[in-house]
Amino acid sequence: MEFQMTLRSSLFALVSALTLTVAAPVIAHEGHQHTDDAAQTEHSGCDAVTVGDLEISGPFTRATLPNAPVGGGFLTIKNTGTEDDRLISATSTIAKDTQIHEMAMEGDVMKMRQLVDGLAIPAGETVTLEPGGNHIMFMGLNGPIKEGEKVSVTLTFEKAGEVTLDLVAAGAAADAPAHDHGSMAH
């Protein structure tokens, strides 16, 4: 699905802009790594989760306005292996549909589309899902995302497999995760 719209002409664009467009890098927590089975192990909010050759860090979402139709999920994925991998899907019960999206501004037109083939995670590289760029898109939210709330999302990778993470909701304009010491993976 591809959206092309001006920021002035659509409420959806306004909500998306408030939710997704602050472009700043996600702060990764370098040096914190676990080699346990991420699906079975609890991790503190300051730790990276390792699944296969992938290290996932800095997961967060943003609080949304009441009745907001969409939300975003953000994190950093580092591929420490020698083979490319691919984020092929994301699921969450917070919304009717969860997709992997790319977004770019061209003048005053926002172009956002689902990456139906997933997102490549090249060997030896780091990919950041961040506000204003590639991100997880929660479409048809079941209710508002409140600051401090944990949103569970399951990521499926082509080679590394599946991992479920808690994305802690930061403020509505946050560009990085709040420093929380709750559970990140389960």
Given as residue ranges, the uncertain stretches (5+ residues, pLDDT < 50) are 1-45, 180-184
Overall mean pLDDT stands at 78
Number of domains: 1
- Quote the CATH topology: Immunoglobulin-like
User: How much helix is in the residues?
Assistant: under 10%
**What distance separates the N and C termini?**
31 Å
- The ordered H/E elements are EHEEEEEEEEEEE
Topology:
Blueprint: E1 2-6, H1 11-20, E2 49-51, E3 54-62, E4 70-79, E5 85-91, E6 95-106, E7 109-114, E8 119-121, E9 126-129, E10 135-141, E11 150-157, E12 161-170
Parallel strand pairs: 3-12
Antiparallel strand pairs: 1-7, 2-3, 3-4, 4-9, 4-10, 5-8, 5-11, 6-7, 6-10, 11-12
Walk me through this protein's architecture:
The chain has one domain: PCu(A)C copper chaperone (Immunoglobulin-like, Sandwich). It contains one helix and twelve strands. It has one helix at residues 11-20; strands at residues 2-6, 49-51, 54-62, 70-79, 85-91, 95-106, 109-114, 119-121, 126-129, 135-141, 150-157, 161-170. Strands 1, 2, 3, 4, 5, 6, 7, 8, 9, 10, 11 and 12 form a twelve-stranded mixed beta sheet that branches. The model is unreliable at 1-45 and 180-184 (pLDDT under 50).
